[in-house]
């Protein structure tokens, strides 16, 4: 029943997708709201519970494909410049976001351990390019700003994974840093990076060789490339490595020999990957209804701070000395929505069943923050762009 309802909703959305493009109703808003309001009407909670593993697998596949695509289209030459805005956001900005997020979590939820606070901060650290698509695609926003936000959203989900896995290791071992660090570096990070590098380099080499020898048909380039992140997912489970780290590293290495990898992987994620992503938002809406009664003011308070101070202060500090206008820093700071990556990382955390005392607090805080972000950033995108353009026009500058 759950799958049937989702498929029908997907069909209806497709029929009216062009009409919705000019409105504030984004696809994530629509599918989240649909899942939320259909849950009490159709009473799908039991089905969600029974099919949660299926949805988790879909979510993991979606994030693996997204990480691979984002990494494969990343221009490594751009990241070499420390003056690049994206580099500042991904380094100083992201580290400060995790530290500040964990610190505020300890303040609002004193019952959490430092490692549990770190888990919460790492889950909510990555931004979502899909939720900020209106910003990234708007010609009214300076290209430099759009590209910086896009690159940040494309890479910070992959960079958040090591922090999440590390904090989870510490929390599950009751704060044994030495043992947790060893397990994390060798198994999760080490095996994942090696596996991803090997598959990406070898896969890119073979695809490029097949193209040069004219062995591969044009319509099979994309399909063959998509197999690489799928292999990362399957082999990671066999070797006990992180599928997310493997997929991200594979995306970086595949472009060394196959220069068109980014083009083909993005085409797939924008089409078929969208199906997986929307299923996650639909599930999220249904699960949100199940937990909405347990959400307290402290969770809402943390969500508000997570989307404002925890995001905007690190961005402002990371961009200091760049000469950007204050309005630009505020604009970039606000439009750091939390979405797909946070949902999937939250599901991964819950799947591990660490049996830690702070699990409920982490779950409810993530649900509240992502829910607030989906609607707040979706509804404020168009007004935010207009406000930003007025500020630039008054200052008579072009960032």
The third-level CATH topology is Na+/H+ antiporter like fold
Number of strands: 0
CATH architecture assignment name: Up-down Bundle
Principal-axis shape equals globular
Class derived from helix and strand content: mainly alpha
Terminal Cα span: 50 Å
Q: What is the CATH class designation? A: Mainly Alpha
- What are the secondary-structure elements, in order, as H or E? HHHHHHHHHHHHHHHHHHH
Output the radius of gyration.
21 Å
Main sheet makeup: none
What is the count of DSSP helices, taking H or I runs of 4+ residues? 19
Question: How many domains would you count in the coordinates?
Answer: 1
Mean of residue pLDDT values: 83
Helix proportion: over 70%
Task: Please report which band the strand proportion falls in: under 5%, 5-15%, 15-25%, 25-35%, 35-45% or over 45%.
Answer: under 5%
Q: Point out poorly predicted stretches.
A: none
In brief, what are we looking at here?
By secondary structure, the protein is mostly helical. The chain is built from 19 helices and no strands.
Describe this structure in words.
With 399 residues, this protein is mostly helical. The protein has a single domain (2-395), classed as Na+/H+ antiporter like fold (Up-down Bundle), CATH 1.20.1530. It has 19 helices and no strands. Helix 7 crosses helix 10 (143-172). It is globular, with a radius of gyration of 21 Å. The mean pLDDT is 83.
